[in-house]
User: What shape does this take?
Amino acid sequence: MDKVTAVPALADGRRPRADRARQVADLLRGEITHGRFGGGRLPLEAALAREFGTSRNTVRDALDLLRDEGLIERCPGVGTTVSGERYPHGLHRLLGLAEVLHEHGEVTNEVRAMSLIEPPPAVSGRLGLAAGESVVYVERLRRLNGLPLSLDLTYLVRDVGEPLFDADLEHNDIFVLLERIAGQQLGLAELSLEAVNADAHTAAVLGAPRGAALLMIERLAHLADGRPVDLEFIRFRGDRLTMRGHLRRSLNDSMEKTWP
Amino acid sequence: MDKVTAVPALADGRRPRADRARQVADLLRGEITHGRFGGGRLPLEAALAREFGTSRNTVRDALDLLRDEGLIERCPGVGTTVSGERYPHGLHRLLGLAEVLHEHGEVTNEVRAMSLIEPPPAVSGRLGLAAGESVVYVERLRRLNGLPLSLDLTYLVRDVGEPLFDADLEHNDIFVLLERIAGQQLGLAELSLEAVNADAHTAAVLGAPRGAALLMIERLAHLADGRPVDLEFIRFRGDRLTMRGHLRRSLNDSMEKTWP
Assistant: This one.
């Protein structure tokens, strides 16, 4: 492979244009989500072609990819504008949605279901409950400034969950309410995170196209004393959320010891 | 809302069947990814209906959802079997793919492009380079046991990137090679994570259906001395990977101080 002379970034004509377009799209996506253009307008195609050292056709294909992701809009005669804001959600700390997004607007929760149920073993097992112990099930559609952001299915141990029947779930994170009820902070949460396509019904609930990419999170939160109390299955609209965090190469000793 | 008597888990007939099916699907997904069934067979529909306290029709819809995610296969007369293994990728520590997945098989990397390039400002800026400084661009299709897992676009600062032209990239993580070249460990990485739908060309490269949900990761890795050296854009097939980690409610003081 030729490494003698550096070529303008993406000008390598031996590579398929689709590969170069993906490369430009990724860099532009980063620029957009890091706020370079604010909520505003992108440079003209010709300027972007110069900036990325590639052809206008490649730039156009890259913009098409980002439009298909819902990140920008392209309007003939007007140009390219940033359309879909992606809200940052920290991966560094356990926070409720309203706590995370308070700078971005108001989170409201539509309670779609709430009842005391006899949980199946898949729930009892994770929450450390004996067979026959009831849990509180809460299903919420969560909106930011009126736009659907996530669909959350939550199982709560009975003693901290039952007081929620009398709480204002529409305007409060369950985390904050739980801590008030339990008289202690939450501690650790186990998290798993996947990308899945929205089935037809979920897509309709979230106001997204069928098949839209969702961030699917399973989260088991413990109180500070170690007791698991809150098992959640969360579907975030992929076009409205970016998870952000930091990773270290070496595990901090104290962290390693406190993690189970 | 009725909370007086606990009802069998998902038997609440006032809710749409699609909502109950999603609920069963999430719990079964958790059971599958936590290994309850190994690589094997799920119980019969009737048994699952009893276990989840719901109708066979709801169970059938739930299994359809998981089949559409590529997690199970359903064969008349044979039953339901786990088909797609999702490999766990730790969110607690910065690791290369082969380091993460060594228990699960062999990672091989097909180098699709590798060259010295003049990077656009979007790259120079993140890597802290002056205009005109070259970087090494590497594009790899990464496979686990021969199956496509991710497509990685990587920009490396020249002094640590250029020796990679003579390295065995096919069988080694770039992280491990970088540390050998730099004579020091990697330190911190900034990470952002989104769910996106695969465009047609990316889908073809990854052997996934068009529109398949992908985990899109942007990662900027620094050497232990703080210098940013490695900017990556990674697309993981959503059906082959689960990110796993832990979050704490309270930030560890020492962590807060060392994070930028």
The radius of gyration of chain A is 23 Å.
